[in-house]
Amino acid sequence: MTVVPLRKDDQAMEVLPPAVEPDASPQRSPAADPKPVARLKLPAVRDVFDAAWPPVVGILAFITLWAVLAPRVETSLGALPGPGDVWDAFKGLMVEFAAAREEAAIAEAAGSSYSGPPTFVDQILTSLKTVGMGFVLASIVAVPLGLVAGMSKKFNAAINPLVQVMRPISPLAWLPIVTMVVSASITSDDPTLPKSFVISAIVVMMCSMWPTLINTAVGTASIDKDLLNVGRVLRLGWFAKLTRLVLPSSLPYIFTGMRLSLGVGWMVLIAAEMLAQNPGLGKFVWDEFQNGSEKSLARIMVAVVVIGLIGVMLDRVMMALQAVASRNRTV
């Protein structure tokens, strides 16, 4: 753009060139533009293969080694079951479950209740309910304590000795104490929750709450000090600072502690059910061991495999919840 100066006797001003006339050609409306098409980008076949073959080879190698070595191991109940024997035992347990459901349906149709023994699937559901209750109780206690401990050095110093003493206590030591306390507290003949369920859930809580408490305290204490200074400048209240600054920043630590607590709780539950003879997978394993039939060892190994698979499933569920919470958190 050029500027044309005037003579001295003219007014002190600059003359800009005339504006260019707008193009008379019709403008295309934004609605007429083609909309971009969202395309799902699939991973390359080579990448999928490179990610999949190591675990597949590892699992196949383990199963092969198991199938070769199992017949050579003799026990009091016979040879150690191989993968085929375990699969057959699993199918037998599913047949028993189907038969029990049919009997329950017939009993309900006749107006009575099914009084048969719990099946393998029923034991799985009982264990999942118990570990869920214990995990929820542990989170309700551990997360608030961890937040306060991370925000207050004095409170952290006060509870740290107790945490270090109680954290390594075995569930087998907690079980008699919890059993006596619950039995003395629940005296009703028909309680809302069975005593065995309450006992197992409390034992799970007592043994699994510590990873969540410790990780929550560490995550809260490691918050960027600039964020806390911003909160002071904005004069945020205690609750506002907790919900807007502390919780979003410490959320990854909290979920890491909860994942560890859920894994510990699942292991503790099996031991508690086995020792206290409470309904669940632990009792199923113990009953099969005491049964001593030729099929007992294969059924025990079915329970062992299922316990491991459920543990992996629970961990993946917590990972998915952590991903959702981390994606939605705002700092």
TrEMBL record:
Belongs to the binding-protein-dependent transport system permease family. It is found in: Cell membrane. It comes from the Bacteria. Residues 1-35 are annotated as: Disordered. InterPro entries: MetI-like, MetI-like_sf. The keyword Lyase does not apply. SUPFAM superfamilies: MetI-like. This is ABC transporter permease. GO terms for cellular component: plasma membrane. The chain crosses the membrane at residues 48-69, 130-149, 169-186, 198-218, 251-276, 296-314. Coiled coil: none annotated. It comes from Sphingomonas tagetis. Keywords: Cell membrane, Membrane, Transmembrane, Transmembrane helix, Transport. Pfam families: BPD_transp_1 (PF00528). Gene3D superfamilies: MetI-like (1.10.3720.10). Residues 124-318 form the ABC transmembrane type-1 domain. The keyword Membrane applies. Its main location: membrane. The lineage of its organism: Bacteria, Pseudomonadati, Pseudomonadota, Alphaproteobacteria, Sphingomonadales. GO terms for biological process: transmembrane transport. Residues 1-11 have a biased composition (Basic and acidic residues). It is a multi-pass membrane protein.
